[in-house]
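Lecture notes, unit on protein representations.

Consider one protein chain, 138 amino acids long.
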Amino acid sequence: MNFHSRGGRNEEPEINVISMVDIVLVLLLFFMVTTSFVQRSHISMQLPKAQQAAKGEPKTPITIDLSATGQVAIDGHGLPMSDLLARLKALAAEDPERVIVLRADKNATQQYVIDVLDAAQAAGLTRISFATLSQAGR
């Protein structure tokens, strides 16, 4: 702090506040740059164990293979298209929430695909996904 007296002895001394403002600004900038507002949880947790399995476990999907000529196979077992509905109804009776994975040949006609979708809907199986290959061919 700089105390000045100007002129005579009767004048009051002044405090030079410019240097104090500089120090305050430097401290303000320091705290603004170094302060972190991220809240991190330091709570260690161990989840409880359940006696029963959760209902949301993934179920084995029903895989339907459809060839370009309209031949159908469910989980690798071939069957005529006319028996598809009865087989899907039997599978739906066991578990109506199962997912159907339709693996249709790229040359299969739309009518064959629609026939399979109609049979699945009539059986009550509405969760259907289509298997495809990625760009890499895998």
